[in-house]
């Protein structure tokens, strides 16, 4: 089980987006109320995990339920811990943004917490795909693609970009001071390097 889908209980993905990433994966984890969203898509997760304060269908004939009531971790953390135990390396997370802002911020923190545990860890919604970048990153993207850079750790230093309209050359992004939102791809592949800090990259669909 290499590629896994995690579906959370935030803003539901579109049906098209759900099935796009469902088709890419061979193991499907619903984080608590994400199981309700899966049912809306007439799909069945391999497992539902969480404190189960939101999940409504307790019929376990077709899938496994793991009840982990502890409040020291949220449902996404519990799902990612399970994905790690199952040997997942490429993880696609849907439904982790939108609705309550505090839940979205928490899930971004969880993304940072687990980033080094997987080869790829993506947080995806109806607007785009986000990931925390390695210190050296390159990707082919269509000209005109909207991208953003955010210093998830508060401050990211020595950032250099190529292929973006608003380029950075050994510069710093810092929350409350300067961020890199709403940039545009003008050359491909784009390259982004940085030295210190956690740099969140958003790629719009």
- Integer tally of domains: 2
Distance between the termini: 27 Å
Tell me how many strands there are: 14
* Large-scale geometry: elongated
Question: Would you mind describing this structure in some detail?
Answer:
The chain has two domains: 3-127, 3-Layer(aba) Sandwich (Rossmann fold); 136-204, Jelly Rolls. It is 20% helix and 34% strand. The longest helix is centred in the middle third of the chain and has 14 residues, at 101-114. The protein has 205 residues and is α/β, with parallel strands linked by helices. The mean pLDDT is 95. Strands 4-3-2-1-5-6-7-14-9-12 form a ten-stranded mixed β-sheet, with helices on both faces. It has a four-stranded antiparallel β-sheet with strand order 8-13-10-11, with no helix packed on it. It contains four helices and 14 strands. The two termini are 27 Å apart. The chain has helices at residues 15-24, 34-40, 75-85, 101-114, and strands spanning 3-7, 27-31, 47-50, 64-67, 90-94, 120-124, 128-132, 136-139, 146-151, 155-162, 171-174, 180-184, 190-193, 199-204. Helix 4 links the parallel strand 5 (90-94) and strand 6 (120-124).
Task: Report a brief summary of the structure.
The protein is α/β, with parallel strands linked by helices and 205 residues long.
Spell out the key features of this protein.
205 residues; alpha/beta; Rossmann fold; Jelly Rolls; 2 domains; ten-stranded mixed sheet; four-stranded antiparallel sheet; 4 helices; 34% strand; elongated
């Amino acid at each position: 089980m290499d590629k896994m889908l995690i579906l959370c209980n935030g803003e539901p993905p579109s049906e098209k987006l759900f099935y796009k990433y469902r088709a890419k994966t061979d193991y499907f984890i619903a984080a608590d109320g994400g199981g309700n969203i899966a049912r809306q898509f007439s799909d069945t997760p391999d497992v539902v995990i969480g404190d189960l304060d939101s999940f409504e269908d307790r019929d376990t004939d077709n899938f496994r339920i793991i009840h982990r009531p502890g409040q020291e971790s949220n449902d996404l953390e519990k799902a990612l811990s399970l994905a790690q135990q199952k040997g997942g390396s490429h993880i696609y997370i849907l439904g982790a943004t939108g609705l309550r802002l505090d839940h979205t911020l928490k899930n971004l923190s969880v993304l940072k917490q687990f980033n080094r545990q997987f080869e790829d860890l993506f947080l995806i919604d109806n607007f785009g795909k986000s990931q925390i970048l390695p210190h050296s990153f390159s990707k082919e993207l269509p000209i005109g693609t909207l991208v953003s850079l955010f210093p998830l750790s508060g401050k990211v230093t020595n950032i250099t970009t190529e292929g973006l309209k608003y380029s950075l050359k050994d510069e710093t992004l810092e929350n409350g001071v300067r961020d890199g939102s709403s940039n545009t791809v003008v050359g491909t592949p784009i390259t982004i390097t940085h030295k210190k800090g956690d740099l969140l990259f958003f790629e719009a669909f």
